[in-house]
Amino acid sequence: MTEFTTRPEDDASVDPDLLSDPQRRFWVASACAVGGAAGVATAVPFVGSFAPSDKARAAGAPVEVDVSGLKAGELRTVEWRGKPIWVLRRSSAQVEDLKSLDNKLADPQSDRPGYTPDFAKNEHRSRDPDVFVAVGICTHLGCSPTPELAAGPGPGLPPDWKGGFFCPCHGSYFDLAGRVYKNVPAPDNLEVPPYVVSADGSTVTVGIEDEDQA
Ligand code: FES
Fold it and tell me: Which atom of ligand 1 is nearest to the CA of 184?
């Protein structure tokens, strides 16, 4: 598990103005991460090769991610419109476990407006059950949660943890569909961005909702 020894707001070297901007705060929070950061970098690579040019990215161009080699339980991070976007290949067991968590979650059906597009309002909160796509920014104050994908107890995690994401800034938990647990600071599920999956399932394109836009 990645250990955050310094929260951004507790780090005297961090300009407070940076923390008021959620997107900039993400990068600040990432820079504050130490300890297991190298391990996470290995397990959760930032896929720079999939990113468009700086000019296209600045304009908010769609970002295509090759998921053909993504194994079950693997997560990749790309950047879209200055935000970290997670693309996770869930195993069939992980998808099945989602059904058992509803009574622990604040908004299990993703009924609240603003964070879940219509295409993802289903039990797995995605287009394809096995491929989950979300904006990796906590809905509380904008830190970047840590992927804790493996099931089982761990430091700071609930004893019956089924895998998900943990925000170390103030202790919020999200399941492997980005659904927020009850009684944590984060008020909403993680945002699902617009995206499409190619017909053969080999690519995910973030930033469009219709293949015709590709
Ligand atoms: S920013 Fe994630 S819990 Fe506060």
Answer: 3
